[in-house]
User: Which sequence fits this backbone?
């Protein structure tokens, strides 16, 4: 079960003082990744005018998938209050040393 504040916008003032500053780098990095998905998806959608119908169909499917993934990633990066619920936390100890 998700907590009640799971989808509360993280840029609210109460969450900003409770440690959201350290999440700003994660949010910016995930926004940049989402923007990359969007740009690549839009670029791929330009290939749907290819003369070969198989290539045009694949470009349409892949481009629309990337645009949807980019929009979802952008929404998730700014609307989810606690990013630790979806990002892995760092290990507690150094796993490479015994």
Assistant:
């Amino acid at each position: 079960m998700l907590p009640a504040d799971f989808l509360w916008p993280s840029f609210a003032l109460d969450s900003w003082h409770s440690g959201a500053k350290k999440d700003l780098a994660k949010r910016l990095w995930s926004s940049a990744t989402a923007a990359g998905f969007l740009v690549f998806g839009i670029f791929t959608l330009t290939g749907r005018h290819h003369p070969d119908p198989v290539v045009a169909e694949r470009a349409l499917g892949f481009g629309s998938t990337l645009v949807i993934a980019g929009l979802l990633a952008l929404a998730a990066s700014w609307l989810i209050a606690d990013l630790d619920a979806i990002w892995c936390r760092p290990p507690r100890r150094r796993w490479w040393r015994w």
